Amino acid sequence: MRDHEGALIKALIAWLKGDAALQALLGDPVRVWDQPPEEPEFPHLLIGKSESRGLNADGGGVEHRLTLTCASRFAGMEEARAVAAAVRARVADAAVEGDGVRAVSLDVTFTDVFRSADLKRGQSRAWAVMRLRAVTEEV
Predict the structure, then answer these.
(1) Across the strands, what pairs with 110?
(2) E strands along 1-61, which residues?
């Protein structure tokens, strides 16, 4: 059996990096990572927690729940909201495929945008936390 979770995350990062709207918001090259650099630039999008479980379906389907987090230092929450909207638009039933695995369903199921203090720098940050649900199958 293939590594559905690893293949999905790798393909999702490539899919998100290929979007002009996200490039306009997250820079060039697009700052989307599953492991951020030591000194990340802002704003950026991080693929974080992921959960996967097999489905009792033909083709060995796997259901995934992924958490994506946008971190912004913009003075308001508009930038984090804009990134969340661009992610929603980009992944809505996207044809994400790679390493012998394809997403047959992919959607943002939850978004939470909020502000918090950056205690190290005395600034505030805006966050957009998105939860994605995907179902993958082998190609």
Answers:
(1) 131
(2) 32-33, 44-54
